[in-house]
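Data card: per-record layout.
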Amino acid sequence: MKLEQVEYLLPEMARLIATLIGLPRTLSLIEAWGGTTFPVSKNKRRDGQIRYDALAEVVGVEAADILTRHFGGEVLAIPRCAAAMREVRDRMIRAEFDAMTREHAALFAANQLARKYQMTERNVWLVLKKADQLADSTQPALF
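The structure for this 143-residue chain is written out next.
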């Protein structure tokens, strides 16, 4: 399961960053600093070079250069992308449950998934009851 499949759930800022540096590097940035702010330096002073180096360590030099050109001097709010990450996790749980229940009982599969994803069995069952969250492009605006 990949984040690309639920890109429509990403906040606007995450989509902008992904457009600039690609989704894999954006995911690295979210994993490292999601939910925080990061002052993107212009890479001219010593403090700015330290921040640039920290950014380059997470996303790579090329992506850090792109982000510096685009956001230099601004404070970048890096989104957590909780809805998209949760949807990816839930789809993985449903797929693994389907695979496991070919050989094992459903109770066993739910127990194993609860341990793997560090959640209660009850929450595993709740995830299994939900359908994949799809992009809603079918219903036009009513007003």
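Known properties of this structure: The first strand starts at residue 36 and ends at 39. The radius of gyration is 19 Å.

See the next section for split statistics.
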